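#random but structural
TW: two for the price of one
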Amino acid sequence: MRVFFTGGSGKAGKWSIRHLQEKGHSVVNADRVPSGLDVSELLIDLCDAGQVIGAMSQFTDFPELDAGTGVPRYDAVVHFAAVPRVMIGTDGECFRQNTLSTYNVIEAAIKLGIPKVIFASSETTYGVCFADGEVKPDYVPVDEDHLTVPHDSYAMSKICNEATARSFQARTGCDIYGLRLNNVIEPHEYAENFPAFMKDPATRRRNIFGYIDARDLGHMVDCCLSTDGLGYQIFNVANDDMSVAITSDEVIARFYQDVPVRRSMRPDETFFANDKAKKMVGFAPKHSWRDVLS
């Protein structure tokens, strides 16, 4: 597939682009800064609607000119570009950029007849991650039916983006899949960061004790590219196991004493439920911090 990928210069984007290329997809990265990857790139401002639709409808590299058959069309758009969290700039600017860029990207894709859009939403939509003080889930494990009432501008922007995506899908009937990403972890971060998580599990409370390996995230994107006809869908994206070394029963006893537990859980099972992604698109994460640390 020919894929227009936004935000490929970021942490999650780089790994996803590499994975898609390994699977044979042709990828064009649209970002403000170069990625350093071996990929065609357009440096644009996604908050400018004209630049977005222009980028999606123009040549991107010299070899495309050789065929003499006009601008090649995209089969899908993957939209990962965003201000990645609160407390980088102002709250309002985080909300503005994230919502406006998402509207521009989906609108351009729809107007150009691109049949599939995959966009990054977030674990923060459940209201736990960036809460002022401690907010506990309504129940565990947290699935896609859990209420989304965030308290911060980043998570608010993601909820708005989900509504934008659902509205475009309802009007057009195309496939638009949103990925509520758990905390994205690169392979080198296991040795760097996880010993501290093992020592103090409380540091993972705001991430609902879960994570998504950046390589498995690329696999999830490919699963979504390969699965057609689902309309509008939201998927939690997490690895199968928790990011802490204690058991699920210990997590419940220490952190979720008054939280309903809706089903029995494996001793190391993620509290950020990924069952829907497995069932509907064939998501099968392979990596774990436990392969690196004991």
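TW: number two ↓
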Amino acid sequence: MEMSMLQQVVPQQQDYTQSRAVALHNVESTITELSGIFTHLATMVAHQGELAIRIDDNMEESLSNVEGAHSALLRNLTRISSNRWLMIKIFAILIFFLMVFIFFVA
């Protein structure tokens, strides 16, 4: 009787050992898969960090360009305004000489 009990216990232990081995293998493959996922994630984060730095640099350069364009527009506006007064003065002088010519020559 003891022998038959012992024969029943041994296969149960072997089944238990095999199921534990399969479970450990599944855990190992899951850990390996997670390692690959985290490596891929780290690569993506590093790539996104580089893109964020480039975007920040481009924004600073764009801000500098906008400020330079604003200054250039203000300078041109000042020149146009001063040129407008110059043209008005020249036009007034021409009208004055035209009137003097008409009154004294005609």
